[in-house]
Amino acid sequence: MPKNKTHSGTKKRFKLTGTGKVKHASAMNVHKFQEKTSSRKRRVAMDNILSKPDSKKVKKLLGK
User: Fold this and answer.
1) Alpha-carbon distance 61 to 37, whole Å?
2) What gap in Å lies between CA 50 and CA 59, rounded to an integer?
3) Which entry of 6, 13, 38, 43 is 20 to 30 Å from 61 by CA?
């Protein structure tokens, strides 16, 4: 049987926590910060945990 390859794009966008949850960065955190409120900028700067159904797919792409 051939081995499964890790998906390169997924590798760059997601990280696994110690408990096995999938962590990802929020969108809207790259540019145009002068248009965003301070509270929105703070909220967007935090990493989020992916939902269970989505994390199952991402873990498969990561080879876990």
Assistant:
1) 35
2) 11
3) 43
Q: What is the pLDDT of residues 9-41, one digit of tens each?
A: 999 999 999 999 999 999 999 999 999 999 999
Query: DSSP states of 10-52 as a string?
Result: HHHHEEE-TTS-EEEEPSS-SS-GGGS-HHHHHHHHSEEEPPH
Rounded Cα gap, residues 48 and 30, in angstroms? 16
CA torsion 58-59-63-64 (nearest 10°) is 170
Amino acid (one-letter) located at 20: G
Global pTM reads 0.78
